[in-house]
Structure formats: C-alpha cells, structure tokens
Amino acid sequence: MSGQLDDQENSSGENGPIQVRILEEGYTAALLVPEEVSAFPSLKQVYLAIENSGVKYGINDGALERIIQEPVKGKAVIFAKGKLPTEGGGSRLIWHENSGAEPSTRDITREVVEPGREPCLFLHVKEGQQILSKLPATGGEAGINVFGETINLPGDDIPLPAGEGTSLSKDGLTLLADRSGLATWTGDKVSVVDIQHIEGNVNGLTGDIKINGSVHIEKDVLSGSRVEALGDIFIGGNVEDADVYSRRGSVVVRNGILGQGRARILAGRNVVAGFVQDATVGAKLNVEVDRYMINSAITAGHYITATSNEGIVRGGTIFAEKRIEVRNAGSESRIATEMKVGYTAPHNISRARYQLRHDQRHNRMELAYVQKRLAFLKLLRERMGELTDDKEKQLVSLEEQESVLLGQYREHSTKDTELEGKSEVADEDLYEAETIRIHDTIYSKVSLAIGDATLEMNKERHNLIFFRAGDNLAFGPLRQALAEQA
Questions:
Q1: What SS3 string covers the chain?
Q2: Most CB atoms within 10 A, among 26, 140, 269, 381?
Q3: Is residue 75 assigned to a domain?
Q4: Is residue 358 predicted with pLDDT exceeding 80?
Q5: Is residue 74 domain-shared with residue 96, that is, in the same domain?
Q6: What are the tens digits of pLDDT across the range 467-479?
C-alpha cells in the first residue's frame, strides 16, 4: 500500500499539531505533521492523536518510534495497516439436463447473470424431479480495518427463480417440479407447463398441428408439414422442409433443421437447435445452435450463439440485434458468409428509426410467410377445382392477415419517409457498438457488419472481437477483451 495521498482519500480531524489520515477505504492509517509546526510532537502526543482518531488495529509501534527518531514534516507516513478481506465466490446455478439413466448437468450461471440474456432451457419433468440446483455463494476470508471492524465480502447470491408449478427443496438449494410437464425458463422464472404429446412424426398422415398451448413432438417434422403453437414447441428429432411457428414461446429442435431451402422456423422467444442447414430461422430473443449453421438466413432480436462443439457459421446470412458469438466463421474454401449485428439506437429521431427497422423486419417476415401459404392454397384450389371447408377457411383467414400486414407495411414506409426528412447525422458518441465474437477461426470471404460499418476478411485470423469504432469496424484479441470485461 502506498503512503501517497490523492484526491480520493479521506482525512480525519486534526489532533493538535498531528493529522491522522485514513486511507484506502479504512485499511490504512497515516500520520502527517504539517511543515508549519515548530516543535515536533512527542511519542505520547502521537499515541494520544491515534487514540482520538479511533485507530486501534494493525498499529506498527516500531514505525511510530521511527517517526519520532527521524522527524518528517509535510509527508504522510503510514503507521497502521488493516487486513484486506478476500471476496467470496458467487453462487452457481446448475441445470439438470435430462431425466434418463445417465442424467447430466450444466452450469448456466453466465447465461443467467449476463444483462439482457434469457437462458434457452427446457426439461421434460415428472412430479418431484429436480430442475435447477444452486451452489451457495462462499463467504471469503474476513478482513479488519484500522478501526478494528470486521469486514466480510460474501459472493453475490442468485435466488432460485421459482415459478408456476415449481417449489424449493427444504434446504432451499434445489428447484423441484410440483407436477409433470415441461420445465422452461421464461422471463425471470422457471415454470412447469402442461404440454401436449405427439408420438412419432408429424407428416401428411397426421396433418398440420395447431395447438393453443405447448407441444412435444417425439420424432420428426417431415417435409410439407406445419406445426403452430401458442406456447413452446419441443421436437425430439429433425425438422425437414416444414413450417414451425411458436407465437409466444420457443422452438427447440433436439437434433437439427434440414430445410432444403424451404424450412421456416419462427419463435416468439428463442430457437434452440443442434444444427441449422438450408433454412430460414427467426426468433424475437435468441438463437442458440450447438454444432453449425450452414447456408441459412437466421435472425435474432438479441443474440445468435454457437460456441459449443464445432460452433460453425458457413454460407448464408445471420443477423442479431445485440451480438453474434461463434467458434468458427466461413471456411478454408472461401465460402461467402455474412454476419451482421445491429447497434444500440442513437437518441431522438435515430432511436425511432431503430425501432422502425425492427418492426419492418418482423412485418416482412410474417408477410412472406402468409403469402407463401396463400400461394400454396390458391395453387391447390386451381389444381383440384375446389378446397375442403377447412382449407377454404384457412384461405380466408390468410387473406385477412395479408391485408392487415400490407397495411402495416404501408404505414412503416410512410413513417420511414417522415423520419428520413427529420434525421440528423449522429456523432459517434451516440452509438453504442455491439460485438461479433469469434472464439476460434474466421476465414477470408466472411463479411461482417455492425450497423452500417462493414468489413470483409481478406485472410484467416483467430480469436477476435469485432466492434464499432466511430464509422468503422475494428477488431482486437477476444481473450483480452473478455478478461478486461470480467
């Protein structure tokens, strides 16, 4: 610890010709004898000043004697040091991955504490089953300041997010299911919801699936099928060139999506999949992929993440409003790949334009989907001469939806024109740059953009973070950036 004083340090009151100064948030004390004092104080006066200041711990008597033997004026001399506390570790949250013969767990603490992040977590449970456990925060080693006060810095506690259909164990360290169903993390709570179960595949024989709640499809969603649910959709196998749409919940595909260029997966919250290939995927919150994203168009309102296993994005375009984080981008064969991140809106008019862009993207996504379904039903009626009553009702409903969405499209265009006329050039300090993070390798022919700042890689690089620097896209070492952020 330094004996130098700065503007941040506090001083006690004066004790005659001696000042006792408390430094470093109470863990150091120093004596200062002003230069204008004619007679240097005695050892007795020094101890009296210390007693009056309240300092009682960590006093170095030898240092005090040296102060008297070698009088120094106008300079603070440390005479007492406390013991710094050691900060405890924060609590950890452990998610129970499955209920099979070999259950596994995953530490989800980082996903929970990161601002703006909602974990994409789902678990089929039976009554009484463990869902989430907490490793308690540790207390660390207590410290003592120079006033003799004990100081503890316990680690941050994370409360278990008990929601509907759950309860805490007696020791308060485990979240249990009060009923059978699907345990999901929604908002800031873990709840167990009722879920409809469909054995086998969804295909032409089963017909389209439309459910007001949540649904678990045991196997695959095959070509030409449509699954729509108000809540969560859990698919135990693959999705082929099919349409899967969760209005208010998430879509979880245990294996992956093999879209053949025609699959469309949309979710009101998150999309989680083992892999995505030749498909269109959109989520209002996050998209999390375990292995790879190949030749796909993927959009997320918050994050796109692929950091486990291969964690590859190759071909196609992925766009996230806040951040993209993958292990590898592009390929050695220089396949064109686009990665785009939005930016935190500037103030005033620019903020309104930012929100408008978000609304326009959502409108286009829904309109394209509705028009695709309309075109299919009209073609079916043309070839068959007439539709079944159920299909005819679907056609009428889709035409109504198209009319509403086209009206919204026109309103957005008008508003965009108005804002264009009012907009001003924003200074760089109005932008809060978001990031693209590459944990392993990024290859050439990968195009990156954050807002309207763009960059195309011209050679292979490793372990990088890309960020907005004024009007340009800059990059630096990812490990260093993460270390500074920690």
A1: CCCCCCCCCEEEEEECCEEEEEEHHHCEEEEECCCCCCCCCCHHHHHHHHHHHCCCCCECHHHHHHHHHCCCCCCCEEEEECECCECCCCCEEEEECCCCCCCCEEECHHHHHCCCCCCCCEEEECCCCEEEEEECCCCCECEECCCCCEECCCCCCCCCCECCCEEECCCCCEEEECCCEEEEEECCEEEEECEEEECCCECCCCCCEEECCEEEECCCECCCCEEEECCCEEECCCECCCEEEECCCCEEECCCEEEEEEEEEEECCCEEEEEEEEEEEEECCCEEEEEEEEEEEEEECCEEEECCCCCEEEEEEEEECCEEEEEEECCCCCCCEEEEECCECCCHHHHHHHHHHHHHHHHHHHHHHHHHHHHHHHHHHHHHCCCCHHHHHHHHHHHHHHHHHHHHHHHHHHHHHHHHHHCCCCCHHHCECCEEEEEEEECCCEEEEECCEEEECCCCEEEEEEEEECCEEEEEEHHHHHHHHC
A2: 269
A3: yes
A4: no
A5: no
A6: 887 778 888 888 7
